[in-house]
Structure of Diphosphomevalonate decarboxylase:
Amino acid sequence: MPVFQATTSAPVNIACIKYWGKRDNTLILPTNSSLSITLSQDHLRSTTTARADPIFSETKLWLNGKEEDIKSGGRLERCLAQLKKMRKERIEDKNPNTPKISEWNLHVASYNNFPTAAGLASSASGFAALTSSIAALYGLNTFTPSEPAVASPSELSLVARLGSGSACRSLFGGFVAWEVGSSLTGEDSLAIQVAPQEHWPTMHALICVVNDAKKGTSSTSGMQRTVETSALLQHRIKDVVPARMKAIEKAIKDKDFDSFARITMADSNQFHAVALDTAPPIFYMNDVSRSIIALVEELNRVSLAKTGHLVAAYTFDAGPNAVIYTEEENVKQIIEIVVRYFPQSDTNPFPDPFKLFAGKQPKAAPLPEGFNEGVAKVWEVGSVKGLIHTRIGDGPRMRGEDEALLGRDGMPK
Ligand code: DP6
């Protein structure tokens, strides 16, 4: 009997217009549209292998090698039910000779190539990889451009959304919008591609992994509290985000970095303002995060005075890590400024994937002329415990048998 198995990988995405708030907690329907950039899977990705077999006595899931409980009626179950329904209705019911693999139990193994300790949200890439691997297994979409898809990435984004809201945006590469939608049942709350990665290939990202001692409030419970208590959120939903979505889409279409950067920074700041406006207040950024803001603002001030243009945009999710979006030509200078204020430990060398530093570790270079050195203090080693340099990337990819996470026996390798 043939083996019914597929392996795919899916990317991380970082929002420029933030999703924060649900109007339906079960269907994961948002209170506002959002927009993100998909980051390259060459550096950050979740890989998932899914297999269906009539001999499996139950459906099982392993995350980074550890078996996880599948909560009955939980998010994962809802994603699986939706994919099984699509397989049954679109393939099995139409072709009576096709094996009814939607009736079989599944073994699913998933692996993130970045440490959970890095504090990067893994639920987006994780649920996108889960959705894409099962879609591939079920013959719904192989993520191979030459093969027609039974279910489009937007349709699959509806499934990933049931796992974690931000996951729906990881079904596409490039610049991706998640439309708020208006239906009570959620079928119009899906992701669409605003522009592919090739449209603006020079868009790079530098992630500053900030040391974080405390365990923060999860996105799910934090946003629920914000919806219940913040008056500012209502203004954001009604008056701010709709205009910003239009403006940032235009900035992306025009490759207008200045507008893109202004909107991205303003939206990150407003997201953290609504977190602060929550009762009790939620603080995701810390003093290190605020120093990074000060450095980027100062660099932009100097650049604006000299060239009339901005060079970088910071954005922060539900934690203290900074993501700095910038065009390729500016990354080296930004790294040199970051390492000047946040000296790096020798034990954690910068991998330099784009070979900016010719085999050496980045060093603090002279600051640009006119840069006010005093906008931040020089922090102790380890305050920013690592730097990840990456760029805009593509959507889910099919992976070969050699990358499968399940062995011949259907158990994790
Ligand atoms: C701050 O998608 O993790 O990263 O839908 O409850 O799983 P759930 O929340 P999640 O929230 C992400 C919030 C954010 C902003 C964003 O990615 O848009």
Remarks:
- DSSP finds eight helices and 16 strands in the chain.
- The longest strand covers residues 45-53.
- The two ends are 21 Å apart (CA to CA).
- Residues 4-196 form a domain with the Ribosomal Protein S5; domain 2 fold (CATH 3.30.230.10).
